[in-house]
Amino acid sequence: MAGLLLAGKSAIITGGVTGIGRAIALGFLRQGAAVTVNHLDDDASKRHFQSLKIEAPQDSRLLSVTGDIGKRQTGVQLVEAAIQAHGGLDCLVANAGVSQFRDFLTLDEETFEAHLHTNIRGTFWTTQAAANQMKKQGRGGSIIGVSSISAHLGGAQQVHYTPTKAAVLSMMQSQACALGKYGIRANALLPGTTRTQLAAKDLASKEKLEYLERRTPLGRVADPEDMAGAAIFLASDLSKFVSGAEITVDGGLSISLQ
What we know:
This protein has helices at residues 19-30, 43-55, 72-86, 109-137, 162-179, 200-203, 206-215, 228-235, and strands at 10-14, 34-39, 62-66, 91-94, 141-146, 184-191, 246-249. It is an alpha/beta fold. It has a 7-stranded parallel beta sheet, sandwiched between helices. Helix 1 (19-30) crosses helix 8 (228-235) and helix 4 runs parallel beside helix 5.
C-alpha cells in the first residue's frame, strides 16, 4: 500500500455504483482507500454493486449501504456503517444525483421534487453527517460535492436541474467556511457532459454529440473515469490547503465559444 495516495483512508461515495460515482469509487480503491458506497435498494443497483466488486482490485475494502439519500437518517446510517467497517471517515463524495431533461412550462411537481430531494437534500444530509463524524474524530477530512458546469450555465430543458447544481457548489463554499476551524475541507467537482446513464438519451442524438465534440477544445465528451483523478486529488493530502474551491473537469467546454 506504500505510495498510494489514499492508503489508510476511509471514504464514502453516494451514488457509487454507476457513472461518475462508480469511477471515483474504483479510483479510490486503486489508491488504497476503504470505500463505502450508497445506492438504491433495488435489483438493478444491487447488480451494479456486485459488478463493482468484481471490477475492484483484489482484497479491496468495499461496503455498500442502501437507502434514500434524501433522508437525513440515511446519511447517519451510512456514516455509522463506514465507521463500524473501516474504523473512521476521512472523505465523503456527495455524488448521488438525478438529471432529466424537461420542458419548463409543463414541468410536473414530481420531477421537480425528485431533483430537490436527491441533489440538494441528499447532498446536505450526507455531508452534515460526515462533517459531524470528522469533527468528532479531530483529524480533519475532505468533503467533495459533485456539482456540474451547469451551476454556471443555463439550459432550456434544465430549469429544474441547474439550480440544484448551483446549490451544491454554494453548499461546498459555505461548508468550507463553517468547517475550516475543524480542519475539514469542502470543495466542488464540476463535470462537463459525461457518458453516464443520466446523459445517455441526450448523447444518443448524433447532432448533439457532434456539437459537443466540436465545441469542446479536447474534442470529446468526458468518460466517467475522467472525474476520478480530480476527486482523488481533493481526497488526498496533495490538496491539504485547498478548500472552498471548484475544479472544472469538462475538457474546456465551458470556456469555449466554438
